[in-house]
Design brief:
301 residues, D-Maltodextrin-Binding Protein, domain 2, ten-stranded mixed β-sheet, alpha/beta, 3 domains, Arc Repressor Mutant, subunit A
């Protein structure tokens, strides 16, 4: 019997859905159905009641489920043990981050962790947000600082590190520059300067405009916020950036105006839901969690 098929059975039982389980497991729904049928054929019993439209586990399936769940835990432990064994001499952790490390003090938390744990080697790479899901999947990194991935949130676990609000970036001479807030519809006739399509913020901004009832006229895309700010100051168009990004680069000839209704985006420490972290990965995850908990507590006082 294929052990992976029993892991898949446990996922279906947990989600009560073949489609959600297939999404979590990154396989097609038809392949998942064939795997379950193969287990049922080998055991000679049905695992699900197919007389109803909903996914209902059979009586025998209820008996088998605890054993399948134990196999899931064992599988996670094996992955973690293998990772720890490979890295036990090096004690290293692979971390990816989208290119906003300085703006959101990701550099600060990494440096602080390294100072507190000098025997652990951190290997950090800067990557575009659209590349990070695959890196987490294939083990190129174990955790990553990134924004939430649209339409893929069920596959990942997120620990919020910093929250931010979307702003309109306008030249000081713009008629709306003195507003405290503005709606996106007020900008529908403008030329837009966006960050590159491979950045997650591009999708956030584009979809926000579409949700507001218009398709943005994008005349420039680039990787560097400072170039966008300078082009905006020169009157080439307007932009949408997060408040922390605009504040960090602090261009003297542009203003940032909050979008209303508010559009929030968080920078999160992210991992695969079905991958158990190594001991080093767990240490870093809990370190970041403790740091953010203390920071949030101080903001409330």
């Amino acid at each position: 019997m294929e052990i992976n098929y029993l892991v898949e059975f446990a996922s279906i039982a947990r989600h009560r859905s073949f489609s959600l389980a297939a999404e979590e497991l990154c396989i097609s729904q038809s392949s998942l159905s064939k795997h379950i049928q193969a287990v049922e054929k080998e055991l000679g019993v049905a695992l699900f009641d197919r007389s109803t439209r909903n996914v209902v586990i059979s009586e025998f399936g209820k008996i088998l489920l605890p054993y399948a769940e134990q196999l899931c835990e064992i599988n996670d432990d094996i992955q973690a043990s293998v990772y720890d064994f490979i890295n036990k001499e090096k004690k290293q952790l692979l971390i990816a981050s989208i290119p906003v490390m300085a703006q959101y003090d990701i550099t600060g938390i990494i440096a602080k962790f390294q100072k507190d744990h000098p025997k652990i080697k951190l290997i950090v790479s800067e990557n575009e947000g659209t590349d990070i899901p695959k890196m987490l999947e294939d083990g190129s990194c174990e955790v990553a600082f990134t924004r939430k991935f649209p339409n893929e949130q069920s596959r990942f676990e997120y620990l919020t590190y910093r929250s931010d609000m979307l702003c309109a970036i306008l030249p000081k001479s713009h008629p709306l520059a003195k507003n405290e807030t503005l709606s996106l519809t007020q900008l529908k006739n403008e030329n837009f300067l966006f960050l590159d399509k491979k950045t997650l913020i591009y999708g956030y901004c584009f979809n926000a405009c579409v949700d507001a009832g218009f398709t943005p006229n994008i005349t420039y895309t680039g990787h560097r916020p400072e170039n966008i700010l300078d082009l905006t100051a020169q009157g080439a168009g307007v932009s949408l950036l997060m408040k922390h990004q605009a504040k960090y680069f602090n261009h003297p000839d542009v203003v940032s105006v909050l979008i209303s209704p508010a559009i929030e985006s968080s920078i999160c420490l992210t991992k695969m839901k079905d991958h158990k972290l190594s001991s080093t990965g767990r240490l870093f995850w809990n370190y970041v969690k403790s740091y953010t908990d203390l920071l949030n507590l101080s903001l409330l006082e």
